[in-house]
User: Fold these one by one.
Assistant:
Number 1:
Amino acid sequence: MKRVTFAVAVALAAATACSSTTTSAGQGESAAQGAKIAFLMPDIASTRYELYDAPLFKAKMKELCPTCEVLYQNAGADAAKQQQQANSALAQGVKAIVIDPVDSAAAATIVQSAQAQKVPIIAYDRPIPAAKADYYVSFDNEKIGSLIAQSLVDEVKKKGGDGGLLVVNGSPTDAAAQLIKKGIHSAVDPSGLKLLAEYDTPGWQPNKAQEWVSGQIAQFPGKIGGVVAANDGTAGGAIAAFKAADTPVPPVSGNDAELAAVQRIINGDQYNTISKPIKIVAEAAAVVANEFAQGKKPAGKTTLFDTPSELFTPTVVTQENVAKELLGPGGALKVSEVCTPDYKAACDKLGIK
């Protein structure tokens, strides 16, 4: 009788252990269900956040966790407003915050506040060097700078001109802009081309870039051989300055593959941009956010600023490969979007249909 009782007890204990193991294994998967995830973007000067980043992130989160809720906010280039948005998200009980900081230094406070409440922070596109985020997802910004600058340097030399370069950097409060700037100088400094002047564009604002470039055109008439602009917005500002001055537009670089920039490239106004499919980083951030919401701690594929990171490699786009990189099957843009009536002749000339 004792042997039977002992056997039953062992069986019950085993069943209980098995049940406990199964429950704990499933807890992580179910923990994310119904979770709130904050997605905090920095500005509307770059059209990508509203048009691509936010919709793509939401779509991937819905796929991964149908019951999760994405709290999307755009700070409109206001660091104080972004701090308020982060505080509001924390008050609403978010399980993770994905943030592209307006001001990389100021965002350290957001990291500290979130981590004090055990809410993981995923730095998105722009790093937060002053505080260790829980994860960083981006394209390799230093590589972006070196790629666009080297491509433009090669084009200026190919044209055989003796003009110097203007460098239009991004925002001085954006750590990603500083990485791009570092990459730009890695190509410009040893190029043998003269650096005429350089500018850090407040808030990445195209109108500020345009104002500055206008001043340089007046200061260096006929001496500007190219403009290394850190993104498509500042590139657009630079190009507008040359057109307003009624002077030929030299090769101008860009970054982000925005629709307007792609049209300028096809039309011959902008020399290059960077193809960095936002779908890649938006979905990667969603995967990481979902894992954090489940109570997991995803490991990075590399480390940057002492933060586990995942950095993707971008591609330079010029007239030579714009159709293949951006307009082909699965491309970021549709031919119908790009080749509008104003650009149809330019598209036809490049064989884009």
Note: The longest strand covers residues 36-41.
Number 2:
Amino acid sequence: MKTSRQHADPDGRMPLMEHLRELRNRLIKAILGLVAGALVGWILFDPIWDFLKKPYTRIPADHCIGGHCDLVVHGIFDGFFIHLKVALIVGALLSSPIWLYQIWAFVAPGLYQRERRWTYIFLSAAVPLFLAGGALAYLTMDKGLQIFIGLAPGDTTVLVGVQDYLGYAQAMLLIFGLTFELPLFVVMLNIVGVLTHERIRKSRRLLLFGIFLFAAVATPSQDPFTMLALALPTVVLFEIAEVIAFVHDRRRDRAPDPYAGLSDDEASPLDLEAIDAELEKGDRAR
């Protein structure tokens, strides 16, 4: 019995139920990757926890007990949820190649064959960008904590719960990592012809303002240092994306038009190589 995948349209078109099944399969694979990464995080909890709490221990001990800052456990079940949150953070980072690929693989069937060739290039850029964003978040977490803990009155002691700190760390890592992916999506939209460099150039000021506004709203602490730490690298990445879009549009404009010089009733040239590739794909499916 032939499966539905064998009857898939070579152009990537499929009925709504097939789209839903494809989405379900992609979600299952992404979740399995997250669970596998979370198991690694659960097993290696002690060294990972020592690494995660360092930004908090680097802040000045003016408001801490005994000259050093310790996180506080408030509830009986907090120990379990601490392990679970740390495992999920590690799982999201380790499985980022898997779920990023699943996102692209779900979108790619709707693209043309020429556009699908960019899959490996986008994936090779998406994973380092996500990890670079997470690394920058880790390096700047102590600055945001220092600013707000420093606002406490001088005669008080600040007791930060482990759950609160992990929620802050998790939000920082994910927001920075995902924000660093935004310029990559600009390049993707340009490659597929949805967003031209001319449109990017005309909306440049609005986009730059939007980056700073998003950084001010999205950062958990919303302090000026963390906002600038997110906004400035994103602006640099956006400028790189704009240059790539400019080069790509110029190269596309210089390419010869296969339909130039043809009258309305004259047959257009065929891309025999592309047709052969689609026929071969259909033969393999049968």
Note: The first helix runs from residue 16 to 43.
